[in-house]
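User: Thanks for the earlier help. One more: Glyoxalase. Can you show the sequence and predicted structure together?

Assistant: Of course, both are below.
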Amino acid sequence: MTTNKNYPKSFSHIGITVPDIKEAVKFYSEVMGWYIIMEPSIVKKEKETAIGKMCMDVFGNDWTSFEIAHLATSDGIGIELFSFPNGIKEAPEFNPFHTGLFHFCVQDPNIEELIDKIVAYGGKQRMPIREYYPKDKPFKMCYVEDPFGIVFEIYTHSYELTYSSGAYSK
């Protein structure tokens, strides 16, 4: 018997650049319920610490400092928020046809309530709530954006359940 050496890797975190770190932490903790595991702090460009060296490797030399905060979802996925003082403060144009990260997705069985809260905090509902299997299964989805213009999706059910074998059939 041979062993499959290619196992599924787990998802660790996603990094999101925002224009205002304090407002983003407020939105994501109060609306999404994500746990704050590290309050906003400042990272400066320097070679004396491990984080300073790592950030120089990642960002190069065209920066002096930035703010960072860490949050976590209920299933332990990290949300790493960045805010750069000299960065463009508007979200990029939404264009899913270009190569790159298109969106991320969160799951909440009460999609209507979450959308209402997103809108109340300055976000947007980008489309009507849609059902994958109207009258057969209660799976719903909707694209929204946060107050900073970052687009994401909401599912009412797990990814596996939504797309499992036979999910599109009765």
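User: Great, one quick takeaway?

Assistant: The chain has two domains: 11-88, 91-169.
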